[in-house]
Design brief:
The complex is a heterodimer of chains A (408) and B (248).
Chain A (H helix, E strand, L loop, with lengths): L4 H17 L8 H4 L11 E6 L3 H11 L4 E7 L3 H15 L5 E3 L2 H5 L6 E4 L6 H10 L3 E4 L7 H13 L4 E2 L4 H4 L2 H9 L7 E4 L21 H5 L9 H4 L20 H4 L1 H11 L9 E7 L2 E7 L5 E4 L8 E3 L19 H12 L7 H20 L3 E4 L4 E2 L3 H4 L13
Parallel strand pairs in A: 1-2, 1-4, 2-3, 4-5, 5-6, 7-10
Antiparallel strand pairs in A: 7-11, 8-9, 8-12, 9-10, 12-13
Helix pairs in contact in A: 6-7, 7-15, 9-13, 13-15
Chain B lengths: L1 H8 L12 H9 L4 H15 L5 H14 L5 H5 L8 H8 L5 H10 L5 H14 L23 H7 L6 H14 L2 H9 L7 H17 L3 H13 L4 H13 L2
Helix pairs in contact in B: 1-2, 3-4, 4-6, 6-8, 7-8, 8-10, 10-11, 10-12, 11-12, 11-13, 12-13, 12-14, 13-14
The chains are: A alpha/beta (408), B mainly alpha (248).
Chain lengths: 408, 248
């Protein structure tokens, strides 16, 4: 937990007193009092959420319904969404205590918060993770956790600097590929040579026409560090399409399927073949006939391919006739999925299953691939320096300037 | 095709199919090892930037110059830095152009703008690193980390006491990005104005980490010990204690 425990208790006490002072009849539900299965509020992890439509709404539900959590604040640039979420949280606790914010900095200034979950569009993630760490909050951030390579180094540095528990948000890494992970870690396939991932498409430029912005939407805040563009509902729609009509389709906000599903598939693949603690040393851009694919090389010799012709998703190649010593497969540290794993680690200060550094290593695969496709050439990567080797032009793609006044 | 794309730029605006500009991106890839072709492409982009093309068109041009821009493109881009609509996209290119002229242009514009535009330029200088306006050197955080030869650090240092707290915080963050001994000395010497303490402490921690990563343990320890003297928050104190352990 963070360093504000005393203050938090004071806050909760003050909140209760304020309710009495306002003269409302107070019915305190068991979720607020604590019972045999629910710790009292002063023992709970105090949480808030930033970006609470779609994925954020799901995360909010997972945390609010976890008895270890006291959920006290929501933030969204769409006032109606924000107020709706506040209403749901208040209904859950039987009070009106949940705070609603339009600016995440106001939510982070809430000294009583232990942790936040973030589910904004991807172009906001790194700034919010870093600001949350600076404010002493633990963070659960939806995937894809970063939008550029430079952001990866900075979010890890912030988490480590302030000793924060920061979890990435791909539950599929552990939960979806058990049939691949088990034989790899169990040694049945022998030394692993290659694994292939099928995912796409890449995000595209967006030049949608201007439309009237809804009155409840803070458009400048939605754009944040991204280049200015006129409001269009398809530009900012949170649906899961990566081929148009959603922010996931457009390169100012997302890497498209390459990052959106890549966070899951590349994350699962690198977990299966146990290179999740590494970043590739090279990404080769291969043209075979009219097909283009990528071949990543890891320092231990393992090859990860992207959309290699003739290979299926998560198709792994071991060494026939050889076996290896089995290794225990890492698991969540608590029952209840990735959110429960995060909450457990907030209490124990362990690193969660999807620790931000591991998530950033996966995102590096995605971003390196996007750059190789954009430049149409193979690249060598120095993971220690976070720079391309011998390719000044590729190094221009490490990051992109943020729209003022945003800084990272 | 490329001619058609540049023709389309003249009337390009929001709502038009961005695929009409795809030949420009294709030309960027095709001219990678073609110096003459690249020079010609850059010249056409500069001409578009100097034209009366729309904001949407210049936005697209700046994105292309991010990859192919050189010192030749700097004057046209620098001219946009005081433009509230296009300052960001000018930095979008300038921040990533390795030529020292790009950093020099950012430094030159810094005293001439205020508010958000000033913060934007400060942020770009931080990302470019200590050698923003000098010879590129490379590094993990700053794009062009190296010796302080350009005057970027002194220029940012004066902004640590700017009456606009947002500007002062941005300067602190940029100096933390730069992370050199000179940057940390400037941060340590600053008298934090209200609203800047957190940013200055964070920047000093960032400097200490970069000094540690560079093997300069004594300098890193000095930064951490300096932080402890300023009655830091518990959060910063625990960060310092972790850092001191890493100093050995």
């Amino acid at each position: 937990m963070n360093e504000y425990k005393t203050t938090r208790r004071t806050f909760l006490k003050a909140t209760g007193l304020a309710t009495v002072a306002m003269g409302f009849p107070t019915i305190i539900p068991s979720s607020a009092r604590g019972d045999a299965t629910t710790p009292p509020p002063s023992e709970r992890i105090v949480m808030g959420g930033i970006g609470i439509g779609n994925m954020g709404g799901g995360d909010l539900g997972a945390f609010v319904n976890n008895p270890a959590v006291q959920y006290v604040a929501v933030c969204d640039v769409r006032k109606n969404v924000c107020n709706g979420a506040k209403s749901n949280v208040d209904q859950h606790y039987g009070n009106t205590d949940c705070k609603a914010y339009g600016d995440f900095r106001d939510l982070l200034a809430h000294k009583d918060l232990d942790a936040v979950h973030i589910a904004t569009p991807d172009h906001w993630h790194a700034i919010m993770i870093v600001e949350a760490c600076r404010a002493g909050k633990d963070v659960f951030c939806q995937k894809p956790e970063t939008r550029t390579l430079r952001e990866g180094a900075l979010v890890v540095a912030a988490a480590r600097r302030y000793g924060r528990v920061v979890s990435g948000g791909s539950q599929r890494v552990l939960e979806d590929y058990r049939g691949i992970v088990r034989p790899c870690w169990g040694g049945e396939l022998g030394p692993i040579k290659t694994i292939n991932v099928e995912v796409g498409p890449l995000s595209q430029p967006c030049n949608l026409p201007a439309e009237n912005c809804p009155a409840d939407m803070d458009w400048d805040m939605w754009l944040g560090p991204a280049p200015w563009a006129p409001y269009n509902p398809q530009r900012c729609d949170g649906n899961f399409s990566t081929s148009g009509g959603s922010w996931r389709s457009y390169s100012d906000y997302s890497g498209g399927g390459m990052t959106d599903w890549g966070a899951h598939h590349f994350g699962g693949a690198t977990f299966a073949v146990d290179v999740r603690e590494l970043q590739p040393t090279e990404v080769n851009y291969v043209v075979e006939g009219d097909k283009k694919y990528l071949s990543y090389k890891y320092p231990n010799g393992i090859e990860l391919t992207h959309n290699k012709p003739g290979r299926g998703n998560m198709q792994v190649e071991g060494t026939p006739g050889e076996k290896r010593e089995p290794k225990p497969v890492p698991q969540y540290k608590a029952k209840g999925g990735i959110c429960a794993d995060f909450l457990h680690c907030v209490k124990t200060r362990e690193r969660p299953f999807r620790d931000i550094e591991l998530a950033v290593n996966t995102m590096a695969v995605c971003h390196l691939g996007i750059i190789a496709y954009a430049l149409g050439r193979s690249l060598k990567w120095d993971a220690a320096k976070q720079q391309f080797i011998g390719d000044a032009e590729a190094n221009r793609f490490l990051d992109r300037a943020r729209r003022e006044p945003w800084q990272l | 095709m490329l001619d058609q794309a540049f023709e389309a730029l003249k009337t390009y605006d929001w709502g038009m199919d961005p695929k009409v500009l795809q030949p420009i991106d294709d030309a960027i890839v095709a001219t990678h090892n073609d110096a003459a072709g690249r020079k010609d492409l850059e010249a056409r982009l500069i001409a578009a930037l100097n034209s009366a093309a729309s904001r949407a068109a210049k936005d697209a041009v700046c994105r292309a110059l991010k990859t192919v821009g050189t010192a030749a493109a700097v004057p046209a881009l620098a001219a946009l830095l005081p433009n509230e609509q296009l300052s960001h996209m000018a930095r979008y290119a300038l921040e990533r152009i390795p030529d020292p002229e790009a950093g020099a242009a950012l430094c030159a514009q810094l005293p001439k703008v205020s508010g958000k535009l000033k913060i934007g330029i400060i942020a770009s200088l931080g990302v470019r690193g200590a050698d923003a306006a000098a010879t590129p050197a490379g590094g993990v955080f700053g794009f062009f980390r190296g010796a302080d030869r350009s005057g970027t650090v002194p220029q940012l240092s004066t902004l640590l006491t700017d009456p606009d707290a947002a500007v002062a915080r941005a300067a602190a963050c940029a100096l933390g990005d730069i992370g050199t001994p000179a940057a940390s000395q400037a941060l340590a010497a600053a008298k934090p104005a209200p609203g800047t303490q957190v940013a200055i402490a964070d920047a000093l921690l960032a400097c200490a980490e970069q000094l540690l990563a560079a093997g300069q343990k004594r300098d890193a320890r000095a930064v951490y010990e300096r932080l402890l003297k300023n009655n830091p928050s518990r959060l910063v104190r625990s960060a310092v204690e972790r850092g001191l352990k890493n100093c050995g």
